[in-house]
Design goal:
The structure is a homodimer. The first copy, chain A, has a single domain (about 5-280), classed as Alpha/Beta hydrolase fold, catalytic domain (Rossmann fold, 3-Layer(aba) Sandwich), CATH 3.40.50.1820. Chain A is α/β, with parallel strands linked by helices. Chain A has ten helices and nine strands. The first copy, chain A, has a nine-stranded mixed sheet with strand order 1-2-3-5-4-6-7-8-9, with helices on both faces. The interface between A and B is medium-sized, with 24 and 24 residues. Chains A, B: This is S-formylglutathione hydrolase. Chains A, B: One of its GO terms (molecular function) is S-formylglutathione hydrolase activity. Chains A, B: Belongs to the esterase D family.
Chain lengths: ~280, ~280
């Protein structure tokens, strides 16, 4: 697990790094970013928040535009931001922006042509946590997870299927019911084949209906988000959490869209939500 | 002066907009961004801070990565971010990234092939202020100006040559003496020809030596900036300000580089510097 440092820059008193490694899961080089707050210099292990990105994004979108460093520095949180898929020549792709490279949907694909490299589920739940734990001062007993859109889907499904691993969970405009919306109705059969049971393992609402639980959950959703009604449908999450007794804080943010102008506005609230639970 | 709205997004309680207009100065379409803080909705005119960007940048770099909106929203500041040059087919360019498109150096070029379109001095000092004043609730009696690198050069020279226009002036890692460093020794003769007198009108240290003054000045400079010794040379600014009696707050920021990871860290300090003077 040799880690190559792509870049490091001092920022908000800490270090924003970008790293590359050869992933055994995807069979490709994978790039991710890690922000170490100033507290990381004293040898102590710090709580870590994972941020999973949305369609078309790499690690760079949130690293450049997420405005998370000031709050993370104040709160003493390490923030890790993976890529959204394997990339490069020899990796399958699709002309559409919602399938293939940049659109891994955090699943282990079983179908051609995706199966050889598209193993983002195992990458973000097993391989990358081992790489991060081996190379950075993270306290793996204090992990939180969040994400945006497809990455919100990733964060919620990963948390639901790893009970106890994450002490704090949140999402920005997540895809909560991919089996019921066009993005997921394309991606899940494409990556996983025709068995609806396989899809339900990657559908937040279905996982909750099938018994998975979270301690509590913060979700922000912009009311001017152009994907709100057709792809995101937070009312399905609200109903599932109500039925299951999961305490959901769902905030409909008036006039906000799907962009990082929205995410960056509420990033501090999310990191404070995580810090409160990770430092309790 | 018809203004086309490229995009608007709610952010930090205000509106981040991007606009395009046909510039008479450059003879091209020009794009710029404006952040309106939440206070802009009540009909009052608000103080405005101009941010001039550096080499290779458009309006988008600082708009995406500058982390200025939270502080601007709190302080009630409008932030305007122009492009760094004319662009497009039919506009002269250079294979190098420090000349031509993306590298206008905030001068009115007199030399071929630049003279027809490279009129960034008149654009940022005359045309764009008129466009902004006509279309946004800016109080033109309360203007501040800042910028980064080549844009720091632009901010300082514009402020020095418009005494009284700007109540607050700051810069991030500015080029302060272009006649004494490689970037300027290429750009100034390239755009302005062989007369050293023309260069001195676009050299902060020379302008101060020749009698121009500022009320006071905040400059942040990273010590790990790879351009520090050869291109930026803040010691020349320190000496010029000391000789002229200009109160300069020059902060050497330990370990910071030339990137937006540096700028975003100290953006709040700069906006507070401006707000203190604009709202006095």
């Amino acid at each position: 697990m040799t880690l190559e440092t792509v870049s490091t820059s001092r920022s908000h008193g800490g270090i924003q790094g970008v790293y590359r490694h050869a992933s055994a899961e995807t069979g490709t080089p994978m790039v991710f970013s890690v922000f170490l707050p100033p507290q990381a210099t004293n040898g102590a292990k710090l709580p870590v928040v994972w941020y999973l990105s949305g369609l078309t994004c790499t690690h760079a979108n949130v690293t450049d535009k997420g405005e998370f460093r000031q709050a993370a520095a104040e709160l003493g949180l390490i923030v890790v931001c993976p890529d959204t898929s394997p990339r490069g020549e020899g990796v399958a792709d699709d002309a559409a922006w919602d399938m293939g490279q940049g659109a891994g949907f955090y699943v282990d694909a079983t179908q051609a042509p995706w199966a050889p490299h598209f193993r983002m589920w195992s990458y973000v739940t097993k391989e990358l946590p081992e790489v991060v734990a081996a190379n950075f001062p993270v306290d793996m007993d204090r992990q939180g997870i969040t994400g945006h859109s497809m990455g919100g889907h990733g964060a919620l499904t990963v948390a639901l299927r790893h009970p106890g691993r994450f002490k704090s969970v949140s999402a920005f405009a997540p895809i909560v019911a991919p089996t019921q919306v066009p993005w997921g109705q394309k991606a899940l059969p494409g990556y996983l084949g025709d068995d609806p049971a396989a899809w339900r393992h990657h559908d937040t609402v279905a996982l909750i209906q099938d018994g998975a639980r979270l301690p509590d959950l913060l979700v922000d959703q912009g009311t001017a988000d152009s994907f709100l009604e057709n792809q995101l449908r937070p009312e399905l999450l609200r109903q599932a959490c109500a039925d299951a007794g999961i305490p959901l804080t769902l905030r409909l943010q008036d006039g906000y869209d799907h962009s990082y102008f929205f995410i960056s506005t509420f990033m501090r609230d999310h990191l404070e939500w995580h810090a409160e639970r990770l430092k309790a």
